[in-house]
Design brief:
By secondary structure, the protein is of the alpha/beta class. It contains three helices and seven strands. The protein has a domain of about 90 residues: NADH:ubiquinone oxidoreductase Nqo5 subunit (Beta Polymerase, domain 2, 2-Layer Sandwich).
Length: about 130
């Protein structure tokens, strides 16, 4: 696959989830893709399994509060340790109902990051356990 890391990742996501992409940008030399929230776990699993991306390491998962927009963002940084390719995926949740499915079935270490993020978000439980 030719092109920049961001172009490669976008091409892979567009194969199956083009309608889920809200924004793609390069922030501080870091490809950042904002997606709709409803299929985030499915899309991250797709990026995990896809031979062109193989993002099989979750570097960071955190919450970002945007009180002026009444939203909470969840930011996932994924890493392909073989190619040293990285991507940041973001979704936005309404602050009054900040709920998203857990990534722990795919990345067991996400459990700690999700609990830490929940603790920092005023104790709101934002990750739904599906197993």
């Amino acid at each position: 696959m030719e092109g920049t890391d961001q172009e490669k990742v976008l091409a892979v996501i567009k194969e199956k989830y083009e309608d889920q992409i809200l924004l793609a940008e390069m922030l501080y030399d870091f490809p950042t893709i904002t997606l709709k929230k409803d299929r985030i776990v499915e899309i991250i699993k797709f990026l995990y399994d896809h031979p062109a991306t193989q993002f099989q390491f979750l570097t960071t998962l955190c919450g970002i509060h945007y009180p002026e927009n009444n939203q909470i963002a969840v930011m996932y940084q994924l890493h392909n340790l073989v190619s040293n390719q990285r991507v940041r995926i973001k979704i936005y949740l309404p602050a009054d109902n900040p709920v998203v499915s857990t990534l722990t079935p795919l990345f067991p270490a996400a459990n700690w990051m999700e609990r830490e993020t929940t603790g920092l978000s005023a104790g709101r439980y934002i990750f739904i356990r599906t197993r």
